[in-house]
Fold these 3 entries.
Entry 1:
Amino acid sequence: MAENGEGEQLSLPEGVGEVVEMDAEAVQEALDKGDLVILDENEVDREEGDEERQEMEGEAMEEGAVEVEDMACAHFDAHEAPVYSVALGKTEKNSSIVLTGGGDDKVILWDMKDESGCKIFDEFEESVNAVSFSSDGAYFAAGSLDGVVRVYDTEKRELVGSLDGPSGDVEWMQWHPKGPVLAAGYGDATMWLWNAQKQQCMNVFSGHDDSVSVGGFTADGKSLVSGSLDASVRVWDPKTGQCTHTIMGRTFHQRSIIAMHLYPDITQQLALTGGEDAAVCVSHFGTGKIIGKLQHHKDSVTSVHFIAGQPFASSGCVDGMVVVWDLNTMKARQVFNHEGGVTALQTHAAHPSLLFSGGVDGAVRVWDVRTNDVEPQRVYTGHLDAILAMDISEDGNYLVTCSDDRTARLFDLKE
């Protein structure tokens, strides 16, 4: 006999709920007859994931939400927690590869051309919040809240080594544009630089008073620029580790810097930053001077992005607004409504005037910054929760997104 949740006795069919001891011969006989089935652990996890997604869809319908059209050409759902980071292969050889990192302490490599499916890397002890391919695609790296950056061989699909930094969280990381050198910012206010191929630390950069929340290499790889929760931007010499410029003050950010983009052409030595003070600032990392402070948003600026080839910059905010700025006048040129907090901005690789915004509504909207049209050119849907990161392929053919709904989705931009 067994009890239900209310303590009542239930009658079970004979043999159900009993522990049966079987020797090897009996087990094989039961398998042959189909009376016994051995469940694969991965299959159990996959079934549980499917059930959880169905529950999410059911909850959305109960709350009266509009059914979401899934416009993705492929979706990846092996993660068991929110997917925080995503990257697409950067070379023709690995253009079919999608890389994701999640709150389940795993990195998953998905090869759309490989029928065997995905490769799971579970060496991490905490959530993986940063993934990236090297410029030549030979390596990929993943950074975690356990403070460790791990480097993998893309072709062999195996771990090359671990880059042990401080005990603080990995906030971001970026590969050098011309070699196997990797930089990462940490929650303990430091930034580290490694030769990833040899797993050797090349430099440690200290000077910020709070977490190094954003950063990266300049287009020529000759400088590093970092932004911090201490409301400052610092410019560094990667070879000496010396800070060459500190950008801060009353005409700059007054609260934490949480977004940064460096101009993709070194001839324009500009840094674009967004902060919790609702401000967008433009600075010159070559001279350390503040160019302008742009104000229109009413809440934290979560994402910023230059529009290559145009004297424009863009910013996305918790208030749901996407603003395109004219850098000649330092004034707002266009204001778009994403219809929900903006979490990510990126431009199309082949057509940089097309600006993509991802948001907490689970959708990606595409805006044309050349026109006065305030309506999106296209809306990509499929996620059931907030988009946390996105990436566009180098050829501009694909968009990949990851979400709080535990999935990553691939959209065909050619359609």
Note: Helices lie at 24-33, 41-62.
Entry 2:
Amino acid sequence: LLYELIELLSRIAKVFKDYCGTLSEEAIRKNFILLYELLDEMIDYGYPQLTRTETLKPFVYNEPIVVAAVPNTGKMINPKTASANAVHKPVIGSVNAKGKSVNQNQKNEIFVDILERLNVIFNNNGYVVNSTIDGCIQMKSYLAGNPELRLALNEDLIIGKANAPANAYGAVVLDDVSFHDCVNLTEFENAKTLSFYPPDGEFVVLNYRLTGDFRTPFRIFPAVEETGPRTFEITIMARAEMEPSHFGANVYVELPLPNCTTSATCSLISSKNVGSPAAEFISAERKVVWTMKKFPGQSEQTLKVKVTLDKACTSQIRREIGPVNMNFEIPMFNVSNLNVRYLRIAENMPGYSPYRWVRYVTQSYSYVCRM
């Protein structure tokens, strides 16, 4: 029941965002009548009825009041890191029920994101203990007439490790894949091509999962050295394994310290081109926070923390150190090597040349190193 409730709330939020363009307090306040009408159609006597944007269109008559998106508070340093969630135009109203463009200045655009979230656990020697990738290809369409699209993926794509031949080195092998119900898989087996009519709003074309060995974008090497009865020094060396043409953006490293910590001083050893490195001890939370706006590929950054305790260090206190948690995102990069070969209109439509925006974003979901 809890899962169904969460799913319903997620769908309500998605529909609201499709209609309003952005989901914020101001958007909800200014579009209260529209959202009330949507809720009235979506839920009847407490039971979900219509929860898809395209099925709601014939029953909803209010127009959205467009609200400017809430500005980001400095988290993004590069627009390429933004996903399709950053497209804040309402989908509803760009085309009418007959598929004609309502606004003659409306661009025919489609946004595609290949988004991967990493779950990685390192041991205290910096070696990977467990690693998975949860990925998806999500789209948001502003195409007039709702034409059929063709999306082609890697020619060497293999679904299921059991199906991978012995000479599959270099191929993209995914554990499992699930597709949106609008996707036609007739040509997928032979040509790795998907065809579909995009539904209104933002939607996920496919979800995929990959477990096992893959090259992690960052590696973490921790070390703890006791320098006195009540003092010790922690060294954390982080290494960016990707190519120099890529970089980690908005890197945030968190190091929990023992509850008996009285003080901690931080020092940094940074390579060139690192954006705004900083580290501080947050006394109230007993943790050190290390941030970098930009972490270039093929570089190393080191944090040294000198910790003072209010009592002698014991094995129990040592166990309170860590684990190290790392958060980041890498624009125009993905670990699985899943690629979009092309995205095109299935039929030849003279004079119809939509803008296609394809972006790759890799994010940490749970990136942990044990101490």
Note: The longest helix spans residues 2-20.
Entry 3:
Amino acid sequence: ADAGATIIVGTWPPVLKIFQAGLKKGSFDSDSELSDGSKMVIEKVYPLDAVFDSPDDVPDEIKNNKRYSGLDGYTIEEVAKAVEADYGKIDILVHSLANGPEVTKPLLETSRKGYLAASSASAYSAVSLLQKFGPIMNEGGNMLSLTYIASEKVIPGYGGGMSSAKAQLESDTRTLAYEAGRKWGVRVNTISAGPLKSRAASAIGKEPGQKTFIEYAIDYSKANAPLAQDLYNDDVGNAGMFLSSPLARTVTGVTLYVDNGLHAMGMAIDSESMSDRNQ
């Protein structure tokens, strides 16, 4: 937005009205301030349910659900056509969504339905987005997604098949980088961010009187990462800006770690077994 980009957003239909109301009330103003003091403007918000590729995929139970009442055109295919009609070509496509209905369950207790739901919403949705939006992306454009270190390391508490979904997302990033690069001249990258206390992350494993999953993860990162400093939204945003800019014109198929270096560590230095060495 600082560079003059037009910002459009797709959001889950059941929360569309809540999101729009928050915009009107200025709930996101503190996160929307640009370098000149003005506020970033979201030009349009589309209802988007990324588990449905086309209208034929939407079951009657969703069509008749009161949370979807009065809404249509929210499949990926329909939103891509609407964006093309409204704006023509686009330069940047951001996949920032995930859902694991059984995320608090260990993998050994995860059902097939829960596992496949996590994969569908968190990984295949990126494939489908690029399938439908790729044809309207300008050459040199970039698709960006967000992943997590649980794709390659064991993170207890991040269950329900979500670790598997993130591994799929990273693998697909590499394959899509090749295919979309050759087909449209489009780059595909993903950011593996360290622990941030987002609303979504704060909802995982929230028990009365205990720290949340993300609070434990933040404490662990500060204790063990090479850079013992806080991680902020802007840090991830700056990395995304780089990957989406001409500065990264030769960068594609990359998982970029923005985690204070935590991914590089093979040993927990705050472990009790290391106490004598750390003194």
Note: The radius of gyration is 20 Å.
